[in-house]
Structure formats: structure tokens, C-alpha cells
Amino acid sequence: MARVLHRSPSSISRELSRNVDPSCYSSSHAHKRCQHRKESARPQRRLHAESSLFGLLQHFLLALGSPEQIALILARIYPKGHKRRVSHETIYNCIYAPPVGEMRLELVACLRQANTKRNTRSKGQDRRGQIPDMLSNHVFRRRLKTNSSPDTGKAIS
After folding, report:
1. Closest by CA position to 68, among listed 117, 99, 113, 105
2. Which residues on adjacent β-strands are paired with residue 25?
């Protein structure tokens, strides 16, 4: 079977040992079991809607409105490495990434600047250093082939 499928015999053996029902092998059953193993292997998120930390976060957001301040308060309350200690980035991700609908709107409204989308640090501009009068490689090579100066574009005599 492994030769026909162009797979290693150990891969086929592992697949069968993991996913065989008492009666036969089913690809849909194997897929479901794979999804279950994948989900159970990942650690649970710290800030999910059912966690007590999420309730604490909502309380602090209503009172303070700043994820940076909340992260500092949690850092003072809980020692380093504690489960309830989170960074301001984790709080922003909790607010902007997963929640949908009314809960998300409530969390965003708690922020000082109630933007529905999170702004990037660069505010939409490319802030990488640009070299003035820089030529791209294809223009530079073309000018070299035509015996013109790469700097001025004038013919070299």
C-alpha cells in the first residue's frame, strides 16, 4: 500500500494505528480525530470570554480605558510568570481580534479612543529609510548596458 501511495511504510502504519475504527479506516473519521488532537495540543488562550481574567479586564477597561495602564496594574498585583499577568499587546489582541458583535463594540467603546480598527504603528506610511534618488536594479542595469552613467543618465564618452 505504501508503494502505491508513494509514502513511507512507517507513515502508513502510523496513520492506521492512530485512526482505525474497530471495523475499518475512514478518512472523515481520521480528519475529525486529527482536528481534535490539534485543538487539544494548543494551550488555551489567557483572555477568552469565559475566563475570570476577561471579567477583570472588562472591569479595568470601564474604569481606566487604557490597556497600558491595565497591564501595569496587573504587573504590580501579580508576580512575574503568573497566569493573570498579561501585556498590553495581549489586551489589544483580545479586544480587536476575536470578539464579534455586541461584546466587541462594548470593549472598543471602553477605550479612550474608541476606534473600531486598530491603527498600525506607522499610521499607514512606509517608514523604512529611503535612499534619495535611488535607482531600482533593473533601471540601473539598463543604464549600464546603454553606456550611460547610472547617476546622471548621460552617455559616458
Report:
1. 113
2. 20
